[in-house]
Amino acid sequence: IAVLLGAGFFGYMLALLQRRVGTIVSPQK
What we know:
By secondary structure, the chain is mainly α. The protein is 83% helix and 0% strand.
């Protein structure tokens, strides 16, 4: 269960980072 929780948290952080990068890159176009 701990591994599953860790994987879910990692995926959440990755999605958050990807969204932040998207918001930074989009306005430049």
